[in-house]
Specification:
Layout (H helix, E strand, L loop, with lengths): L1 E4 L2 E4 L6 H8 L6 E4 L2 E3 L14 E5 L6
Length: 65
């Protein structure tokens, strides 16, 4: 299935979860995930199934002053 991750298309297996996506991206903590503009808590990554066309943002914190 095709989803948009940080405004780029990405192919994932059918029935992929947020946990699968994060693993495929090899995302390094800390980061937050939103699917269709809704925050997904880390405890819900394995249960949150993605569907074709979802818009996912993987966001790292920005520091500075």
């Amino acid at each position: 299935m095709n989803v948009t991750v940080n405004q780029k298309n990405m192919d994932l297996p059918d029935n992929a979860t947020v946990a699968d996506l994060v693993a495929q991206m090899q995302a390094k903590p800390p980061f937050a995930v939103a699917v269709n503009m809704q925050f997904v808590p880390k405890t819900g990554y394995a249960q949150h199934a993605l569907t074709a066309g979802d818009a996912v943002e993987v966001i790292s914190p920005v520091t500075g002053g």
